Amino acid sequence: MRPVELDAGAPPIPSSQPTVRLCVVMVNWNGWRDTIECLESLLRSTVRPRIIVVDNGSENGSVERIIAWASGAEPYEPPAGALRRLTNPPIEKPVTIDVVDVATAASQPPGGADVTIIKSPENLGFAAGNNIGLRHALQDARTSYFWCLNNDTVVEPGAVSALIARMDATHKVGMCGTQVRYYHRPGHWQCLNGSRFRLLTGMSRGIGRDVPVTRQFNPRTVAEETDFVLGASLCASRAFLETVGLMEESYFLYFEEMDWAVRNRGRFATAFAHGAIIYHKEGGSLGSSSRKGRRTPMAEYYLMRSRIKFYRRHFPLLWPLQYPLSVALILRRLWRRQPEKAATMVRAMLGLRRV
After folding, report:
1. pLDDT tens track for 88-111
2. Are 341 and 325 in contact (CB under 8 A)?
3. Helices 256-263 and 126-138: crossing angle, nearest 10°?
4. 153, 278 in Cβ contact below 8 A?
5. pLDDT in tens, 315-345
6. What are the helix (H) ranges across 24-125?
């Protein structure tokens, strides 16, 4: 099915308040350009969601740049390429914004602004950043679904309505993913819904990864095969959050969604909103690419540290196996002549702080 092209002329923001049934929570860390592009796409959704942006201690004036965009003082320039249609022409300005601190967000529900920005004074990591937004959103009892969405994404106009429809249709729904296509290769999937997980090795692979989007798939089969939903586009129900709990913050980065999946075992269903399509730049802010050799030392450090922590928490009998696996991964980085990555992975394996 081909996406519908938007009519010429700046699309107005709907005059009615956004639906409070679904709230988008995204974390920004020095990524205001990506965040603005994502907001431009979300604000033209056929069903406009409530939007919360948690600024995770940015050091490059991200909040001020987003406010300038929202007021119209800093014009938005749609990017070139196939996905330009999702943010061009720009949304009419101004976009109303509430800016609150973490303490205020923890003590009161969201207001009626188009976008709420919560300013964290420091970078607390992916899980803690999302949790700040989730706690704020949960205070409005009318909100049923909470979509954790990476800021380095853009969405098709019908993604929100497709997510709500799938969540509504799934009995005892807990988590739900979407189609995730590569931003720079929109003709291929990064994954369908999420990944399969290999318990012995701690490795995972996205369902449908690198497969052309023209390939047929069975949505029910995809949902059944999903061991965990990709954290870049993960919608959770209120019942799930209130029963299973929020993301585990001790990981800082990686394995949060797998931890959620393990804690959820036998409780809530995992769904797949196959009609919801997003495009992901994959590792835009952290260099966390799944492609061979492209992860940054920072990404390598947290990936190894979180995998070891995950096994120690949930599978202690398999935890010792992670050390010889870690050594093998370090030796592979040395063989690839990547000594900086190998060094930071050694620190992660030994439980030392990243330099």
Report:
1. 999 999 999 999 999 999 999 999
2. no
3. 60
4. yes
5. 999 999 999 999 999 999 999 999 999 999 9
6. 32-42, 62-71, 102-107
